[in-house]
Known about the structure:
The protein is mostly helical. It is built from ten helices and no strands. It has helices at 3-20, 25-44, 51-58, 62-68, 72-97, 100-119, 122-130, 136-157, 166-179, 186-200. Helix 2 crosses helix 6. It is elongated, with a radius of gyration of 22 Å.
Amino acid sequence: MSDRNINGARSVSASARTEARPPRADAARNREQLLAVATRVFMAAGKEPSMRAIAQEAGVGIATLYRHFPTRESLVDAVYQDQVERLTAGARDLLAEVSPATAMRRWMDLFGDWIATKNGMLDTLLAMIDAGEIAHARTRTELLTALTALLDAGRAAGDLRADVTAEDVAAALIGVFTVAPRPASEARAARLLDLLMDGLRPAR
């Protein structure tokens, strides 16, 4: 083997190690902070905010935001996936901490946050779904699975009705947050969610 080949192999190996290396802790923290700020801005926005507005809210330059999220689509995808993870992991975490009925009610609030965040990035999100860049069907399956876990636990504990499906609850939640969008109608949404919970409890 020639020196040239050996050097080339070393170069590729070093490059592979560099690519596999996880981001520095401070870079990861900065990304998480930007993600949290973007989520908050999307949730409160009446229309899609600009990338510059998100950077300003985070207190960073636009170049810093683009360094972590090179395009609007990459930021929207990161926020969207983070919210879905919060819903799916949230169901498991809540069931480990509180009763199934309480877990269901708190999960409804997480669902409301997800809906509100989607509304602030809807145009980009719909374009990405149409382009196949976001697997909307898979997201729906994941959310229904989380809801089913909550309902199954509630039935086993006698906290929730046995004749309700995950699709029933999802449809009801979409209805609630359509007529009482958050954060503008926070109090009304909370009241409607409490009424929904009353309907999910078994008859005495």
